[in-house]
Amino acid sequence: DKVIVVFTLFLLRHFCTLCLILYLKLYGIPNLIILYYTILYHIIRTPNDWYNFCREVSEDIVINNSEKIGGVGITVEIDESKFGKKKYNRGKR
Predict the structure, then answer these.
(1) pLDDT (tens digit per residue) in 38-59
(2) Number of H helices, E strands in the chain
(3) Is the pTM of this model over 0.70?
């Protein structure tokens, strides 16, 4: 429980910064401009630190809340192009 409280306080303290950096990133602002913003406003963590933090949190959520797909009577289709090697527009081999 102590870890959750510390984690929550950390998020609340830096929530505005995190939201702004993610907002800029989602709207396609180049990383260099976001980096200049963080330097200009003396934000200690770099945008990459925030991106990595968000990726790790998202990864934990997916891993902890994952469920099996499919089941009895349910067909799961897998697109082979997602798992095959790149063909560079040469068609099937």
Answers:
(1) 777 666 666 667 777 777 877 8
(2) 3, 0
(3) no
